[in-house]
Amino acid sequence: MKDGLYFQLFSIHGLLRYTGMELGRDADTGGQIKYVVELAEALSAHEKVRRVDLFTRLIADKRVSDDYSRPVEEITDKFRIIRIQCGGKRYMRKELLWPHLDEYIDKTIKFIRREGESPDIVHGHYPDAGYVGIKLSDYFGTPFIFTGHSLGRPKKQKLLNDGMSPEEIDKKYCIERRIATEEEIIQRADLIITSTRQEIDKQYDMYENSEKAEYAVIPPGINLEKFYPYYHDLMPESKKEEEAIQAHASVQEELNRFFMSPDKPLILALCRADKRKNISGLIATYGSDKELQAMANLAIFAGLRRNIAEMEENEKDVLTDMLLQMDRYDLYGKMAIPKRHDFTYEVPELYRITGEKKGVFVNVALTEPFGLTLIEASACGLPIVATNDGGPRDIMENCRNGILVDPTDREAIRDAIKKMITDAGWWKSCSTSGIKGVNEHYSWEAHVQKFLHRMEETVKTGRKSGGKAEVPGENPVGDRLTRLDYLLMTDIDNTLVGDEAALKRLMEILEASRENIGFGVATGRTISSTLQVFEKYDLIVPDVIISSVGAEMYYRWESFPDEGWQAHISKWWDRDKIRETLAPVGFLEYQEEENQRPFKISYYMQSEKDRLAYLHDLLTRNRCHYNLIYSDGKYLDILPPRASKGKAIRYLSYKWEIPLEHMMVCGDSGNDEEMFRGNTLGVVTGDHDPALDKLKGKKRIYFSEKEYADGIIDGLNHYKLIERAKAEEVS
Question: In this structure, are residues 487 and 518 in contact, taking their beta carbons and an 8 Å threshold?
Answer without folding.
Answer: yes
